[in-house]
Design a protein that fits this description.
Layout lengths: L14 H12 L2 E2 L11 H12 L12 H15 L9 E4 L1 H13 L5 E6 L3 H10 L2 E6 L9 H7 L4 E7 L11 H13 L3 E5 L25 E6 H4 L8 E4 L2 H14 L7 H9 L3 H25 L2 E3 L6 E5 L8 H12 L1 E2 L1 E2 L7 H4 L2 E5 L4 H11 L5
Parallel strand pairs: 1-11, 3-4, 3-5, 5-6, 6-7
Antiparallel strand pairs: 2-8, 7-8, 9-10, 10-13, 12-13
Helix pairs in contact: 1-12, 2-10, 3-10, 4-5, 4-9, 11-14
Bound molecules: 4'-deoxy-4'-aminopyridoxal-5'-phosphate and glutamine (GLN).
4'-deoxy-4'-aminopyridoxal-5'-phosphate (PMP) binds next to α4.
């Protein structure tokens, strides 16, 4: 009996599932998987309850409910000046994860080469493998995790068809700057490449660093599929409502896959996310300010314990080097940490092809209440040398 396909060979269980299960089993404070420990806005939750009670419980249209598609288009105009047609250039997906999966399966053929930023979010590797594509990592290195432009140029081959971007970047927390985006855009245009841009942390940049969607650069709107998520922007990660926006042909190819993966995404949650996207500016500024203060709390605490801390410019996550505390191997460190200190974190190695570079790095999530971060730091005190 054949019990699994070559398509999933070696993919195993995601590190997030493994580490969250470990946190539950051991009662450790979970600074591993990136999910907030506070609920999203109560008015948004009430909207979903209203939708559930008012009979919006059958299949949504394939592309998503009209008010969410309009709200996504309004959001792209309001924050970035981007014009997308809600009828043909917006696709609602079951989280950004399904958007990424559908885009890669719909846009990339077996043998195509896809440039990705290393370290990379784990579902990229899995989906590139399932699509039969070859990944070409371009590595962001500590301490500042900037994009090495020469290496990016050198990664393009005649078989390259797409660039899979992520900014703000998980796990490093770096945010691509204008000069980096200009270089990516120039390469994409010169070699006629599609850009798939994962921007799920678009509303989580700190210290006034702007998030610049690559679709806003000259010549890029027509070759960029942008992926986003209501889970991240509204602290509702369990709702799994995301969207892809871009030119009609790229959205249609993505829809070509999505329709057979899930057909449509959860209907009663979509009008609520539409309502959320229209939140006043104050919601977004307060959200970012709160996360920035939690970032500072965790980064300061980890630095006091003796870790080398690479302060992130965006996302939910901070990366540290564990060697100053006498550890070498992040996987080993993270597997022992719940027993040793009652805390869960995520080893970077799983996000790297370059094992040596990832080995001493560990990622910690700060999308947690200040008292939870304080408790985690107090527990980690046992590691101090
Ligand atoms: N992309 C990145 C970079 C992420 O960190 C995540 C994490 N949740 C996702 C995509 C998936 O988002 P969703 O939960 O909306 O599927
Ligand atoms: N994006 C989240 C993280 O990086 C986790 C999402 C997931 O579990 N797939 O922690």
């Amino acid at each position: 009996m054949k019990t699994s396909s070559d398509r999933i060979a070696g993919l195993g269980t995601t590190i997030f599932a493994e580490m969250s299960a470990l946190a539950l089993r051991t009662g450790a404070v979970n600074l591993g998987q990136g999910f907030p420990d506070t609920d999203g806005p109560s008015d948004v939750v009430e909207h979903a309850v209203d939708a559930l009670r008012s009979g919006r419980n059958q299949y949504a249209p394939g592309f998503g409910v009209p008010e969410l598609r309009v709200a996504v288009a309004d959001h792209q105009r309001r924050f970035y000046g981007l014009e997308v047609d809600p009828d043909s250039e917006v696709l609602v997906t079951t989280g950004a994860t399904e958007g990424i999966a559908s885009a890669l399966l719909g846009l990339v053929d077996p043998g195509d080469e896809v440039i990705t930023l290393e370290p990379y979010y784990d579902s990229y590797v899995a989906m590139l493998q399932m699509a039969g594509a070859v990944r070409r990592p371009v590595t962001l290195r500590a301490p500042d995790f900037r994009l090495p432009l020469d290496e990016l140029r050198a990664a393009v081959t005649p078989r390259t068809t797409a660039i899979l971007l992520n900014s703000p970047h998980n796990p490093t927390g770096s945010v691509l700057r204008r000069d980096e985006l200009d270089a990516i855009a120039a390469i994409a245009i010169e070699h006629d490449l599609v850009v798939i841009s994962d921007e799920v942390y678009e509303h989580l940049t700190f210290d006034d660093i702007p998030h610049i969607p690559i679709a806003t650069l000259p010549g890029m709107a027509e070759r960029t599929l942008t992926i986003a998520s209501g889970g991240k922007s509204f602290s509702l990660t369990g709702w799994k409502i995301g969207w892809a926006t871009g030119p009609e042909r790229l959205v249609a190819a993505t829809m070509g896959v999505k329709q057979f993966l899930t057909y449509t995404s959860g209907s009663p949650l979509q009008p609520a996310i539409a309502h959320a996207l229209a939140a006043p500016d104050a919601y977004f500024t307060e959200f970012t300010a709160r996360l920035q203060s939690q970032r500072d709390q965790l980064c300061d605490g980890l630095a006091r314990l003796g870790f080398d801390v690479f302060v992130p410019e965006g996302t939910y996550f901070v990366t540290t080097d564990i060697r100053p505390l006498g550890f070498e191997d992040g996987i080993d460190f993270c597997r022992r940490l719940p027993e040793q200190a009652g805390v869960v974190a995520i080893p970077h190695q799983v996000f790297w092809d370059d094992n040596d570079a990832g080995r001493p790095l560990v990622r910690w999530a700060f999308c947690k209440r200040p008292e939870v971060i304080a408790e985690a730091l107090a527990r980690l005190d046992v590691l101090r040398r």
